[in-house]
Predict the structure.
Amino acid sequence: MDEARTVEPLTRAQRVLAGAGGLFFAGLAGLGGYGSFASVQDVAEPWFGDQAWIVPAGVDLGILALVSVALLLEWLAMPMPALRWMAFAFTAATVWLNVSAAHGDVTGMVMHAAMPVLFITFIEAVRHAIRRRAGIAAGTVREGIPVARWLLAPFSTFRLWRRMVLWQITSYPQALTAEQRRRHALALLESHYGRKWKARAPADVVWMLSDGVMLDEALARVTELTAPKPAPEPERKPEPEQPQRKAPAKKTQRVPRSVATDNEARALAIIDAEPGITGAELARRLGISSRQGQRLLSRLASPAPTS
């Protein structure tokens, strides 16, 4: 059910028209009562005698009382249809009594029935206005569906009207929005499950979408059901542990013996010629590393042990 809405107050022009209508209604009621009083009194005189005036006075006052109370209850959003029907019954009785006073003359019957019919028509117009404003304030007035939609799409419009009546949707634009969301959810289910989506989708979702209720929850469920699922990641097989390989030991590069003998001979010759030579210079001349040159210099330059 929609929330209550604020009713705009009548403008000055509307109040003036309403006041003028009330004056005209009072005049119509007075003339109608005065015109029918004598006719009804004449009809009731054979049965009531001198008290025949009670019949038209009681009927007219009863109609006014019923109409007043019925309008008040409509204003308070507590309508009581029995009061309306009783007012109609008393008005019909007044019309019948006035028509009987015409003694079969068609012109007289129409003249006697004109003012009571106008009275009832005016009362129904006032009741409609009061009921409409009270319903708008209470949020219970259901907006009508345009005739063009009934002509262009009668079956879907009837289903829309049915949901508005069953679930107390009073706003036509809100009903259209709900219908669009419902059809979108149906399209998603059909594209996901195929033509037999009603048999494959969850039963509660099918019920909510078929009756057009709890659409927020239904759409959330449909979005969850039809969302694309992420592709599963391939399982990774554990790699077998490989034994750790020991780094190959560095092989010391050994100088061939003949080469070493030649280097020693050349080194001795250089040391004898230059006693103060360094190991780096000796290595450069022999074409060996500085470390080997230093070791060779240390070994050859030291004096030989005595026996």
